[in-house]
Please model this.
Amino acid sequence: MNKSQVELDKLRKGKPNKKPVEQTPEQKKATELEAKLVRRDTIEETLNGVNASGVNIPKDIVEVLVTNDHNQTIDNASKLLKFITSIQKNIECFPYIQGWS
Model:
């Protein structure tokens, strides 16, 4: 019973009861390539979503927004769009600024 409790406590604390399996070089390469593909797809999805809102943001800026965390990427893009929208509203308030570009 005590050994079971120790194992349950390890699981509760997030400690694995086994050592992680080491990957072969081929598995590591496949994992890296998969991560690159996921990032590329996330960049494209984010770029398309931002452009669909009527704002054209360069791809290199979108690449800065994209993280490995999908929700964080959405938050980053949302914050940038809010910022751009606030700038657009400020410019609309001052029509004489619109001709400066």
About this structure: Residues 36-101 form one domain. The chain has a mean pLDDT of 79. Residues 25-52 form the longest helix (28 residues).
